[in-house]
Amino acid sequence: MKRRTLLGAGLAAAATAASQIARATRGLPSPKIKDVSVIATAPEGLRLTVVKITTDQDGLYGYGCGTFTQRAELVNLAVERYLRPFLAGKPADRIDDLWQAMYDSSYWRNGPVLNNAISGVDQALWDIKGRMANMPVYQLLGGKHREAVDCYTHADGSEIPQVIDNARRFMAQGFRHVRCQIGIPGMAGYGSSRGDVKVDALHSGPVFEPNFYFRRAVKMLEECRTQLGDEVELLHDAHERLPPILAIQFAKAVEPIRLFFLEDVLSPEDIAYFRNIRQQCATPLAMGELFNSPHEWTPLVSERLIDFIRMHVTQMGGLTPARKAAAFAEQFGVRTAWHGPGDVSPVGHAANVALDLACYNFGIQEYSHFGDRTREVFSGMPEMKNGYLYANEAPGWGIEIDEKAAAKFPFGYGESGERKQMNGGWGEIRRRDGTIIKQ
Prior knowledge:
The protein is α/β, with parallel strands linked by helices. It has a domain at about 140-395: Enolase-like C-terminal domain (TIM Barrel), CATH 3.20.20. The chain is about 40% helix and about 15% strand. It has helices at about 1-25, 70-85, 95-105, 110-135, 135-140, 160-170, 210-230, 245-255, 275-280, 295-300, 320-330, 345-360, 370-375, 405, 415-420; strands at about 35-40, 50-55, 60-65, 150-155, 175-180, 235, 260-265, 285, 310, 335, 365, 380, 385, 390, 400. Strands 4, 5, 6, 7, 8, 9, 10, 11, 13 and 14 form a 10-stranded mixed sheet that branches. Strands 1-2-3 form a 3-stranded antiparallel sheet. Strand 7, helix 9 and strand 8 form a beta-alpha-beta unit. The mean pLDDT is about 95.
């Protein structure tokens, strides 16, 4: 009798435990996508696209970044006219499956408009998943490899002393990595003012000459290393404006300066020349912010021709392909340095931080300051302290959006001149003789 009683009690306990496990693992029922909408806002004058997905479960929604400032309205239309009807009623918890479905359904693939639209949906689904699990997204990716995200910021100036002063100011704020950019008198150099000097040209628009930039940038970086010392890590962005042979010479010329990395020294159209650079110097190379497709970054990583993948997470299609690219790069000793300019929404920056925390092969993160108007619209953004970004520990991205505040800053807010005329887009830059160059 005693044995039967014990056996019965054991079976009852096992049944109770099984029931508790089932309840714990089942969680909420699978949510369905009820609506997909766009929050279009420009609090700092840059057009930000945020996708909001609402589900059939009360209070369960998510946000994702789909920002492509230069063609923002096209992304918004892609979301509203194509992805919204495609996604209606589908399960919100099948993230990878939905990504593949969106990617394949257009037939024509790997373009920036569609990729950014997919990214907005993809990141919103990850936000929903985190809210369902009551965890920040980085926990869903495996948890932290590090306590916070080491960042670099941008020091520029029309003259070398200004660059050095700005770099020192950032170093005093705790930044250990600083990207340095110099203006070219009278020319549209990337990342800094050209001043009031006029340059003779056969046209009246912005001018850029690669050789002028080459000499001035090398001199600036040499002076930065001399005056700022060896402890600070220096970075520089060539912004794909050099012809291939000049790019090789530039990478060799800055090798003694020991940059943390040289960014976009070649354009995507010229990536085969990375083999020539690698054969001739050891300057660390970062590449990828214009990449749309794995066909672009896969050979550079697998042949170890670059040191940092620097893709724009929304441009490549969102968190889902980014985490796969990071895992692939890890096998070849290539680190991450996701693109993080001002024309990525705070939701996109939160996605960058989640990847930075969860990926073993993190290298560095580009940081752009969040202004007061941005903070009025977005709450719960990653916080900067002493050169490190700290994730919000709330579920999902931890970000909420005040849609009434967002509506105060519609597309076109703060725009002037060419940007206003081009609906947020960029115009053109030419050499002195009138030849168009890459931006």
